[in-house]
Specification:
This protein is elongated. It is mainly α. It starts with a helix and ends with a helix. It has helices spanning 2-29, 31-65, 68-75, 81-94, 101-108. The chain is built from five helices and no strands.
Amino acid sequence: MKKNKQSNRQYGWWFLLFVIILYGVAYLFDAALIKASLSHFVSLLKSIAPILFLVMLFIWLMDIFVNPNKIRHLLGHEAGMRGWLIAITGGVLSHGPVYAWYPLLTSLQ
């Protein structure tokens, strides 16, 4: 199992290298298009970076303050109807594509 994760990481690096080379080759054919593409990427990254930071902060805080045993107690077999209501509410609130959350989280910021 550990070897499989190691090989997946290597494929990720190979994919990144392939994309960089592909951008380099495309730059030779149409430099303006590649510059515009990278400029759009940087502006998009600037607009979503605060939201991504906020999400990572929430994940980190949840990791620190939420005990897995407490989650098992709230959502496990013994939780009953309360567990179902918590799970359904969480699912309804988080349903849909992630990018739909960005405007909401921006307004909450």
